[in-house]
Design brief:
The complex is a heterodimer of chains A (318) and B (325). With 318 residues, chain A is of the alpha/beta class. Chain A contains ten helices and twelve strands. Chain B has two domains: 5-90 and 172-313, 3-Layer(aba) Sandwich (Rossmann fold), CATH 3.40.50.300; 91-171, no CATH class. In chain B, helix 4 (108-119) crosses helix 5 and helix 5 crosses helix 7 (156-168). Chain A: This is ABC transporter ATP-binding protein.
Chain lengths: 318, 325
């Protein structure tokens, strides 16, 4: 059973006076309880546009997002149904996502259902703070009194307030230092493992996704080009783009070894190449790449969208 | 002839509400001609403050002691005129955020040629030719057209390459790169690292590369310094330093980064957070967070001790450190 289903989602941005930009061009992805799905890709590939649609913050231009079987509809917060608050989001920048003028405790309590009252309410607050490793005294303080890592932990506590079943984390540790990064990542992983939540973990840091995700999806220019169990994806990347991303990660070794470079730039999504979108930068591109490759299965729960991995059309029919 | 850059027992204190706030303590560091040197550490450890000292960009009222010699010239006593000679043509800098480093309302061409004409004394035409060359060197497609473009018309990675071209415009001998790839994607980062390495080989450019990413440090630099709370805590050849660290802080930084182990417990965080300037604990500044701490750590600040050829570490107990591969 999956909890969050992203089904054929397209997102179009329509800048005034310019051609529409298709940020997400048909993405299928699902998250099961207790599962961490990593979504990686370069900036501008549509990761954040997809995250916002998945959390119901904006409407997709086509396709559907379902949470617990019911469609997620981007409504004003007053009208969000009680069962949909089980879908929560953590943003990249904890400086911007917490209100600087309200005490931390107040902000955390916003998410606690109104039925919980009196002593139970303050008990819930303490529980939330304890879960993210903050002292109960933090409730009466303001966001500026905390460091970046602590603020991100408070933002996570706030997302946890309505007891969500799925968390969408969009670059949650990118703004943080190495040591607080590790603290926040361990907190998120712990939540998934202990509370059985599902998590969509979006990051451009491949090494980090490798470390924590059960399944990794690789996105390029609005499309998922490869999905596989994380270990398999790293051991045996099938898509040339996945390989290029993995090879570009600098590694620690006894002698300096420069990471491999990938030629070219990510094209403007407003005029994406016809056919395979990676073809202009792909070292293996050939004639057939001018038409768009379908995603083919490469084992259970893994798929790749690349003509290199297609069975030849004639032999396939035998 | 010594090193191109020779910093000796540099200390910097900034004015604070309750008297001077010491930021850097006893920092000694060298960068040789054509050498790629790494400077690593968490934010607030003094990496960027060191860079600012070398460019005379410290805020007014800063107290500086020690010495920083660039190509034989003492930087710390330079006047305004002297700094103008060193900046750009001697030492140039690339910042983390290229958007802030480039003027949004001037074309790239104007920004590139301006300091060439000041520092190199070349005419408009020659400057333009050199600007095209520079953009070509940093692999900007169609450099002629790029000269007429404004910074916002480039992507983040291209903008950083333009910023590097602009830093190189006056043919500096030392480039200080302060987290130049932190905001960029790995693929773009790989391109910039390759570019810096090529410039070092082709033109003998020396680079001081400031980063908190130990992978980048290892991929690019030959020698490194690890900073903690305004002090150098370990230095040595980068490969050895990162595979066989001598200081517990270096080992802790290595443990906190993802290493692809899929061990169940993802990462090993360093407990607590770095001390704020002016609130340093007695003795070793890392002792409150150190897993190997002993009583003697809290009595005096440990000096940098030699620890093998070309290496030094500021730790009195020198525990056996294990590093996950």
């Amino acid at each position: 059973m999956t909890l969050l289903d992203i089904d054929g989602v397209h997102v179009e941005h329509k800048p005034r006076g310019r051609a529409p930009v298709r940020a997400v061009a048909g993405v299928d992805l699902s998250v099961a309880p207790g599962q961490i799905v990593g979504l990686v890709g370069e900036s501008g590939c549509g990761k954040s546009s997809l995250a916002r649609v998945a959390a119901g913050l904006t409407a997709p231009s086509a396709g559907e997002v379902r949470y617990a079987g019911r469609p997620v509809t981007p409504l004003g917060w007053r009208r969000r149904t009680a069962d949909q608050v089980g879908l929560q989001m953590v943003f990249q920048n904890p400086y911007a996502s917490l209100n600087p003028r309200r005490a931390v405790g107040e902000q955390l309590l916003d998410g606690v259902p109104a039925e919980v009252t009196g002593a139970a309410r303050s008990a819930r607050l303490n529980e939330l703070l304890e879960r993210v490793g903050m002292p109960a005294a933090a409730a009466s303080r303001y966001p500026h009194q905390f460091s970046g890592g602590q603020r991100q932990r408070l933002a996570i506590a706030r997302a946890l307030a309505p007891q969500p079943r799925v968390i969408i984390a969009d670059e949650p540790v990118t703004a943080l230092d190495a040591s607080s990064q590790a603290q926040v990542v361990n907190l998120l992983v712990g939540l998934v493992r202990e509370l059985g939540m599902g998590m969509l973990f979006i990051s451009h840091d491949l090494a980090l996704v490798h470390e924590i995700a059960d399944v990794t999806a690789v996105m390029y220019l609005g499309k998922i080009v490869e999905t596989a169990p994380t270990r398999q994806l790293w051991a045996q990347p099938h898509h040339p783009y996945t390989r290029a991303l993995i090879d570009a990660v600098p590694r620690i070794s006894t002698e300096p070894v420069l990471p491999a470079t990938l030629a070219g730039e990510v094209p403007d999504p407003a005029n994406a190449p016809a056919g395979c979108r990676f073809a202009p930068r792909c070292p293996h591109a050939f004639d057939r790449c001018a038409t768009e490759p379908p995603t083919v299965a490469i084992g259970p729960s893994a798929g790749v969208a690349c003509w290199l991995h297609q069975p030849a059309p004639q032999t396939a029919r035998l | 002839m010594g090193a191109l850059l020779d910093i000796d027992r540099l200390a910097v204190a900034l004015p604070g509400p309750r008297g001077p706030l010491p930021i850097l303590h006893d920092v000694s560091l060298t960068v040789g001609e054509g050498e790629l040197v790494g400077i690593a550490g968490e934010s607030g450890c003094g990496k960027s403050m060191t860079a600012q000292t070398l460019l005379g960009l410290l805020p007014p009222g800063a107290k500086v002691t020690g010495s920083a010699r660039f190509d034989g010239t003492e930087l710390l006593t330079l006047d305004r005129k002297g700094w103008q000679k060193v900046r750009g043509a001697g030492i140039a800098m690339v910042f983390q955020d290229p958007t802030a480093a480039l003027h949004p309302m001037l074309t790239v061409g104007r920004q590139l040629t301006e300091h060439m004409r000041v520092h190199l004394g070349v005419d408009r035409k020659a400057a333009r030719r050199r600007a095209v060359d520079l953009l070509d060197q940093v692999r900007i497609p169609d450099p002629e057209r790029a000269l007429e473009a404004y910074p916002h018309q480039f992507s983040g990675g291209m903008r950083q390459r333009v910023a590097i071209a602009s830093a190189l415009a006056a043919q500096p001998r030392l480039l200080i790169a302060d987290e130049p790839t932190t905001a960029l994607d790995v693929t773009v980062q790989a391109g910039i690292l390759a570019l810096l390495d090529r410039l070092r080989r082709d033109t003998g450019l020396a680079v001081a590369f400031i980063t908190h990413d130990l992978g980048v440090l290892s991929a690019l630099t030959a020698r490194s310094y690890v900073f903690y709370a305004g002090r150098v805590v370990e230095s040595g050849p980068t490969g050895q330093l990162l595979t066989k660290p001598e200081h517990p802080y270096t080992a802790a930084l290595l443990g906190a980064r993802p290493h692809g182990g899929q061990t169940g417990v993802a990462l090993t965080p360093i407990p607590g957070s770095p001390p704020a300037p002016g609130e340093l604990p007695p003795g070793c500044a890392f002792s409150p967070r150190c897993a190997h701490v002993r009583d003697e750590c809290r009595t005096a600040v440990p000096p940098l001790h030699p620890a093998g050829p070309g290496r030094a570490a500021a730790c009195v107990i020198r525990p056996e450190l294990e590093v996950a591969a």
